[in-house]
Design a protein that fits this description.
Layout lengths: L1 E3 L11 E3 L17 H17 L6 E9 L3 E3 L11 H14 L1 E5 H7 L7 E5 L12 E4 L3 H10 L4 E4 L3 H9 L5 E7 L7 E2 L9 E9 L3 E8 L2
Helix pairs in contact: 1-4
The structure holds NADP nicotinamide-adenine-dinucleotide phosphate (NAP).
The site of NADP nicotinamide-adenine-dinucleotide phosphate has 28 residues, from strand 3, strand 4, strand 5, helix 3 and helix 5.
Length: 224
């Protein structure tokens, strides 16, 4: 639960309780007319700043491999072994450069290896989870607090990389700054979507290119 201060409203400066699960105007008891655009633009910005801390400059990139029909896996235990070498190379170099990769426990269970050269943060509610590798940590911190703690450790860039549950968690907190999607020439027909829950984002396409022989790389900035 956070406190929002609604700019430009009669109650500006008066704290209104907001919750991570709020997705629409009617979830608020804000005391003023609220429409979808207001909710998206101001509320998510408020969540972002209040959960990260106003001074936070931590950049968050969502980096995911998609099939041509927009899926990230066949089921929640499906290892991402269906992407080409260029994609694996991109994941390794991008996450190592960022320094931190964040994922859900189901995704980590499909890998079950340490991903050297970067800090790997696994979200789980299971208090007893542990791994034998120094660079792997487990946490149940809310996403904003997790970013704050990573920033205090000196990190400036984190990559969120699945699965659908964790992607939705960060998106619904308004914490994703940019999205990099790689599209593989594969169709699953049914399976795991990019986000497990309803999410609303407006993007601007910053860069698109052919990747290797057969893939598409798309870089989007989250604008609201
Ligand atoms: N194509 C790609 O680039 C790519 C990348 C990554 C993953 N994937 C795919 O994504 C699929 C898995 O996605 P998924 O949505 O099922 O699982 P997930 O997002 O990887 O992990 C979900 C788990 O995260 C933990 N969790 C959820 N909310 C939490 C919270 N608020 N705080 C702390 N922990 C929390 C829970 O673990 P506990 O039960 O341990 O508490 C939950 O079971 C697989 O198919 C995988 O291959 C694809």
């Amino acid at each position: 639960m956070w406190r929002a201060f609604f700019p430009g409203q009669a109650n500006e400066g008066q704290p209104v309780a907001i919750h991570e699960n709020f997705t629409k105007c009617s979830d608020l008891d804000a005391g003023f007319p609220c429409n979808k655009a207001y909710f998206r633009n101001f509320l998510s910005a408020t969540i972002k700043s209040s959960s990260r801390g106003v001074e936070s400059e931590m950049k968050v990139t969502l980096l995911m491999a998609l099939t041509a029909d927009g899926l990230i896996g066949k089921d929640d235990a499906h290892l991402t072994d269906w992407t080409a070498a260029e994609d694996k190379k991109l994941f390794k170099s991008f996450t190592q450069k960022a320094g931190v990769v964040i994922m859900g426990s189901k995704t980590f269970d499909t890998l079950d290896r340490p991903l050297p050269g970067r800090k790997v943060v696994i979200l789980t509610r299971k208090k007893n989870r542990a791994a034998p590798w120094d660079n792997v940590t487990f946490t149940d911190l809310p996403p904003g607090e997790l970013l704050e703690s990573l920033e205090k450790e000196g990190h400036q860039h984190a990559v969120v990389s699945g699965g659908a549950t964790i992607n939705a968690l960060f998106a619904r907190h308004g914490l994703i700054d940019e999205i990099i999607l790689t599209y593989s020439p594969t169709i699953f027909g049914s399976g795991v979507p990019l986000f497990a829950k309803e999410v609303s984002m407006n993007l601007s396409l910053e860069k698109v290119r052919r990747m290797g022989d057969n893939m598409i790389y798309a870089h989007y900035k989250v604008i609201a």
